[in-house]
Amino acid sequence: MQILLINPPNCGRSIPEERYGITSVRQIFRGEPLALEELAGNLPDHEVRILDLKAEPGGLSRALSEALPDLVGLTGVTCEANTVRRLAREVKAAGVKSVVVGGIHASNDPAFFNHEEVDYICIGLGKLSFRELVEALEQGRQPADLPGMAKTSPGNRLQWLNRDYREADLVSHHPPAYQLVAHYREHYRLERLKVSMGFVASAAGCPHRCSFCCIKGQSDGRYLTRPPDQVIRDIELLADIPVIRLIDANTFGNLEQARQLGEAIKAAGLNKQFLADVRSDTVVNHPELMRLWREAGLRAVIIGFEELDDQRLAAMNKANRADVNREAVGILQEMGITIVGDFIVAPSYEEEDFRRLSDYLAASRIDLPIITVLTPLPGTEYHRRQRQEIINHDLDYYTLTNAVTPTRLAEEEFYRLYAELVRTSHQQAKL
Fold this sequence. Notes:
- By secondary structure, the chain is of the alpha/beta class.
- The protein is built from 16 helices and 15 strands.
- It has 2 domains: 2-167, Cobalamin-binding domain (Rossmann fold, 3-Layer(aba) Sandwich); 188-427, Aldolase class I (TIM Barrel, Alpha-Beta Barrel).
């Protein structure tokens, strides 16, 4: 079967830019489409191509004219959902027989894609589900009972069987098809550091339940890990890439697995630098694990600090404390590990809240702050709580830099203060 997997172009719209001419809140990083590489790697008996429209924005017409695929697979996050539907219409109009949509938005809000331009919706981890769908279609069977795969029925309620996610769903004995994006590799760079970056997954899902986070839809709230030897194999496939981003929601969600992987990386002598996600309480409670990973090549960590006080952290169901966040910063700095800190500003922020966060960042030892706007993403607990408050339902604006619920300040003032916070924090960044 001929299969084309498509990563959507950079998209999403900006309220501060469109209404007030404020452009400094844009925060775009382009990385390789690892989810599609994983899908392709699990289809060794099929002719698979990957089209990355983030690296090749005008490439769809060419790809369809070169060889019309039997099946097209599309993935996308929430702010890309409208674009994914538009792309689905284009490939259907070109004569493609089967169109499948997956990714985090499809997993959290599958009904959004229950339209005639889409044939199947992959809900949750898709590496195994997608292969089972391809095999069924190739054999001429109607895959009506595949767990994790919904057949669209426009105008009717979607129905599907839930998948009982296990490590087997990772199908980690098949490596990602990194070779299919070799011609795009020069685009996958960390521009601030002027280095190439490759993506590797060591885990899927997250064991925590932050109310604003959409990752639960990936594996129905379960945390699944890959065997260390197979993670090492994937890293070695990126032989010429100096920096590896472990693209997990939480690389250290299973402490024993993280220890084994760190030891394996260290023993393999890979000569790589790593960027990984970690919680601050893991750093504080297990500094020996951070030291091990530092010896293995851990260069930087991404930590979701989110807020500065315990009350607001509790409101997010963050299950963490502000003093733990501060202690983690000190431990990581002492080890020489760079800190990329995620912070969230709420639409309810007033001028004093912006000033407080600005003062904290100016005085902190966080190397690169990333500041987003609290957004009720479909499928999250926060979305369920805020449903009646949402005033902007156009998913193009769900970029985490727009307020889609009312701001307490006048809207223009909110965005002016937000943009100034982003600008000054980046000027003060230590990277």
